[in-house]
Specification:
The chain is of the alpha+beta class and 162 residues long. It has one domain (5-161): Alpha-Beta Complex (Fumarylacetoacetate hydrolase, domain 2). The chain has 6 helices and 5 strands. Strands 2-1-3-4-5 form a 5-stranded antiparallel sheet. Mean pLDDT is 75; it is low at 144-162.
């Protein structure tokens, strides 16, 4: 069976994440439209078997949501392999476009076993800690400039927390 461009791009991103490699820029299709970027993010996260310890939210500001014409913020998984203890160093390279400081929520394991509905009233019982989260933008891609804000979402696999 022939692989789609989405599957090939996801495989390339996952391989880069697992082997800590740099890749060529992603196709514009996945950096222009947020829903395409979300499809790519979900497919990539489904292929990574490392333990998820939390989630990083993005696009939480109302002006950003309006600019992207979205209805709600987006998120990405934070993996255990990228969780740094206090005092550790964050690697960057010459392709790094910037560093963003965000918030990461470390969640309890029973969150993944929960069968019930999770809403604003009961979500706090699943959160064990809040932590600063450093996103290294453009770390995986050989790009000289950031064309669109959505590119930040696609660089989901390099989320670092401490």
């Amino acid at each position: 069976m022939k692989k789609t461009i989405l599957e090939k791009t996801a495989n390339k991103l996952v391989k880069a994440f697992l082997k800590n490699k740099i890749i060529a820029p992603l196709p514009l299709k996945y950096t222009k439209k947020l829903n395409e970027a979300q499809k790519l993010r979900k497919l990539c996260e489904s292929k990574i078997k490392d333990p998820v310890i939390g989630f990083k939210a993005a696009g939480t500001g109302i002006p950003v949501i309006r600019k992207l014409k979205e209805k709600e913020p987006f998120y990405a998984s934070v993996y255990k392999r990228n969780f740094l203890k206090s005092g550790k160093k964050v690697k960057i390279n010459k392709f790094t476009l910037g560093i963003e400081l965000e918030v990461c929520y470390l969640i309890k394991k029973n969150f993944f076993l929960s069968k019930g509905l999770i809403n604003m009233k009961n979500v706090s019982k699943f959160i064990s800690h809040m932590a600063p989260c450093i996103e290294v933008v453009g770390y995986r891609q050989r790009k000289k400039e950031l064309h669109l804000l959505v590119t930040c979402v696609v660089t989901l696999v390099q989320m670092l927390s401490f």
